Amino acid sequence: MTTSDHRLEIAMGHMLRTGVTVAALVVLAGGVLYLWQYRGPVPDYRHFHGAAAEETHVGAILRGAMHLDNRSLIEFGLLLLIATPIGRVVFGVVGFAKMKDWLYAAVSAIVLAVLLFSFFWER
User: Is 91 within 8 Å of 11 (Cβ atoms)?
Assistant: First the structure.
């Protein structure tokens, strides 16, 4: 393993650790706000009631998180958690391309394309 390979591996590890830590802290902050602000009746967990469709769009989640809405903060933290491995693959594409390791850069780019396709494709 060369020095540049080792540095890339260390940087990817730091990026993954940071992403997961930030996502966990955002979800924790949203959970604490939820418990602090919630003053309603005890929910009935026997029946599932999903969120309204307009509340699940990224724009609505970001707007709610900017206003410190507790549920939006939790959803934003989950989006960060989902984005962390995608960011790692992007980091890999760029890192391998800088090292001129075209095989691994191409494989990482294919993995990125599959991830993005599966993330944005709606049935």
Answer: yes
Quickly list H helices, the chain. 3-37, 58-66, 70-98, 102-120
SS (H, E, C) 45-67: CCCCCCCCHHHHCHHHHHHHHHC
Least confident of 23-32, 51-60, 87-96: 51-60
* pLDDT greater at residue 34 or residue 123: 34
Q: What are 6-9's contacts with CB under 8 Å, separation 24+?
A: 8/92, 8/95, 8/96, 8/99
Q: List all residues 6 or more positions away from 60 whose beta carbon is below 8 Å from its beta carbon.
A: 54, 72
Q: Are 68 and 31 in contact (CB under 8 A)?
A: no
- Rounded percentage of the chain residues whose pLDDT exceeds 90: 57
Phi, psi of 10 (to 5 degrees): -65, -45
